[in-house]
Amino acid sequence: MINIAVCGANGKMGQEVIRAVKEADDMTIVAKIDINNGEFATIKDAKDSVNIDILIDFTQPKSIYENALYCLHNNISIVIGTTGLSDTQIEELKKLSEEKGVGCFIAPNFSTGAVLMMKFAKMAAKYFNNAEIIELHHNQKKDAPSGTAVKTAALMAEVNENFATGNCEETETIEGARGADSYNNIHIHSVRMPGFMASQEVIFGSNGQTLKIRHDSTDRECYMPGVLLAVRYINEHKSFVYGLDNIL
């Protein structure tokens, strides 16, 4: 039986994770961690009281890096669904995970459909030299752009060096109108408003045609198979993984 602690247990994703783990035959919840009326207020409090094999973190961008460092230094494997980590922080966690031999699984998106969307975008990127990303989330999401958009752009950039081929020299009359200029000139546009949960559209263009690849999440339940898959993988392999696409 895999002993699971959930950090951010009282949040919407945390509650969904707890439900999914309770339904799994090979896992059990040993700690619900949340600074707002959680069973434990901190990971240290939980560690001092129960045996934790894997911590699943769905908290906030400002706390995830420190949470991950604590886990890796204290022999607790971690599955991270919180986005907002920088490239530098991810590299540091990879290095520490490998040094300590403690599992660390970071996924910008645990939805299998979203992972396929990213894979399809990478495939299409070989054939289009112009592309932009629009990501849409609820207005309580604190980081922008989303981890999914950043990961998608990074994957696309692996196979194409410039996604603004032929564009004229631009002038923004309102700063930020063209979105964030990310990897290899892929512009990312972030929308935040009520009514959305999580959506992303990758738009490719060339002379005479456009291609749009879109994924929409309408219920947090769609992330749970990916979360459980990550838990089982990291429990067995004790390695570093960035992206659910690496184990599908």
How would you describe this protein?
The two termini are 23 Å apart. The chain has 2 domains: 2-106 and 220-246, NAD(P)-binding Rossmann-like Domain (Rossmann fold, 3-Layer(aba) Sandwich); 112-217, Dihydrodipicolinate Reductase, domain 2 (2-Layer Sandwich). The protein has 248 residues and is α/β, with parallel strands linked by helices. The radius of gyration is 19 Å and the shape is elongated. The strands form 2 sheets. A 6-stranded parallel β-sheet has the order 2-1-3-4-5-11, with helices on both faces. It has a 5-stranded mixed β-sheet with strand order 7-8-6-9-10, with helices on one face. The protein has 7 helices and 11 strands. A hairpin with a 2-residue loop joins strand 9 and strand 10.
Provide key terms for this protein.
11 strands; Dihydrodipicolinate Reductase, domain 2; alpha/beta; about 250 residues; 5-stranded mixed beta sheet; 2 domains; single chain; Rossmann fold
- Return the CATH class of the largest domain: Alpha Beta
**Mean pLDDT reading:** 95
Tell me what the CATH architecture of the largest domain is: 3-Layer(aba) Sandwich
Order of strands, main sheet, comes to 2-1-3-4-5-11
Low-confidence stretches: none
The largest pleated sheet is described as: 6 strands, parallel
Q: Percentage of helical residues?
A: 25-40%
Secondary structure tally, helices: 7
CATH superfamily of the largest domain: NAD(P)-binding Rossmann-like Domain
**Inertia-based shape:** elongated
Q: Whole-Å distance between the termini?
A: 23 Å
Secondary-structure element series: EHEHEHEHEHEHEEEEHE
Query: Which structural class is indicated by helix and strand composition?
Result: alpha/beta
Rg, nearest Å: 19 Å
Number of strands: 11
Strand content: 15-25%
**Number of domains in the coordinates?**
2
CATH topology of the largest domain: Rossmann fold
